[in-house]
């Protein structure tokens, strides 16, 4: 059966959502990754049925019907005994995001086995050792700390990596780690750790990128951005029940905003 390409998405996520929705309607749709885009193809005889569904999807892609179809397809794969290759391919499309999650989890396990050894090896206590300018982002000091940071890292990192590429996510991560860690070291000291400075960079990048482009590509609304800024301000006011690396957060946020401006000045985001 000959498959005909009928649409290409810049992100794999909406492509996967629409493909799952078509499958739930008994239609045959195949995905293919071509560079930075994901194309969808279907048999010629089904294109007339797919066209109105695609128009509806492009009008309201956030509708619950598409999430429900994706969940249905995921559950069908899991119960049918077939290997969920598409789900694994989604992880492979975000290798940097997945690698950081793995590293953070492994380091957290090390901390549970030998807290002092892990912290001593990775904190920015010896600036002459170059890796220490990055490695504090891998340290977390409670289950709440690691879960909160990894949830936001995975959500935003995956979006950035699938839309703008792994190279940008690496650059954004390393530069924000350097700036946030260096600022925290200079103004407070080396007793800190966590991915939150980088997470603030991702927030800043996603929010300002959408503003500059005039489009909504990333899951950072104005309300959420306002909350993150408020949380940052409360940290500096020292009224929260947790100790926060406030200067790392501020440095990360500034780095993300700078990256958004630089990217937009070169090309539409």
TrEMBL record:
The keyword 4Fe-4S does not apply. It holds the Pfam family Rhomboid. InterPro entries: GlpG_N_sf, Peptidase_S54_GlpG_N, Peptidase_S54_rhomboid_dom, Rhomboid-like_sf, Rhomboid_protease_GlpG, Rhomboid_protease_S54. Residues 3-76 form the Peptidase S54 GlpG peptidase N-terminal domain. Residues 128-264 form the Peptidase S54 rhomboid domain. It is a multi-pass membrane protein. It is an enzyme of class 3 (hydrolase). The chain crosses the membrane at residues 91-110, 130-155, 167-186, 192-208, 220-241, 247-262. One of its GO terms (molecular function) is peptidase activity. Keywords: Cell inner membrane, Cell membrane, Hydrolase, Membrane, Protease, Transmembrane, Transmembrane helix. Its EC number is 3.4.21.105. GO terms for biological process: proteolysis. SUPFAM superfamilies: Rhomboid-like. The keyword Membrane applies. It is found in: Membrane. Its main location: membrane. PANTHER family: PRESENILIN-ASSOCIATED RHOMBOID-LIKE PROTEIN, MITOCHONDRIAL, RHOMBOID PROTEASE. Belongs to the peptidase S54 family. This is Rhomboid family intramembrane serine protease GlpG. It comes from Alishewanella maricola. The lineage of its organism: Bacteria, Pseudomonadati, Pseudomonadota, Gammaproteobacteria, Alteromonadales. The gene is glpG.
């Amino acid at each position: 059966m000959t498959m005909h390409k009928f649409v290409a998405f810049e992100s794999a996520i909406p492509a996967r959502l629409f493909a799952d929705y078509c499958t739930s309607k008994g239609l045959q749709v195949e995905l293919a990754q071509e560079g930075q885009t994901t194309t969808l193809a279907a048999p010629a005889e089904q294109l007339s049925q797919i066209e109105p569904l695609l128009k509806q999807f492009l009008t309201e892609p956030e509708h619950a019907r598409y999430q429900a179809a994706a969940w249905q397809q995921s559950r069908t794969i899991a119960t049918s005994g077939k290997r969920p290759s598409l789900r694994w391919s989604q992880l492979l499309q975000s290798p940097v995001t997945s690698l950081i999650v793995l590293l953070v989890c492994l380091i957290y396990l090390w901390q549970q086995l030998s807290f002092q050894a892990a912290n001593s090896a990775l904190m920015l206590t010896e600036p002459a050792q170059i890796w220490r300018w990055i490695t504090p982002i891998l340290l977390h000091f409670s289950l709440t700390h690691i879960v909160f940071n990894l949830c936001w890292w995975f959500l935003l990192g995956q979006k950035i990596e699938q839309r703008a590429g792994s190279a940008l996510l690496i650059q954004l991560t390393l530069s924000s780690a350097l700036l946030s860690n260096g600022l925290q070291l200079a103004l407070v000291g080396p007793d800190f750790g966590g991915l939150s400075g980088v997470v603030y960079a991702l927030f800043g990048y996603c929010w300002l990128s959408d503003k500059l482009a005039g489009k909504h590509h990333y899951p950072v609304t104005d309300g959420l951005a306002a909350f993150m800024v408020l949380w940052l301000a409360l940290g500096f006011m020292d009224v929260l029940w947790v100790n926060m690396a406030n200067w790392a957060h501020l440095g990360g946020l500034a780095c993300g905003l700078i990256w958004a401006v630089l990217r937009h000045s070169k090309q539409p985001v």
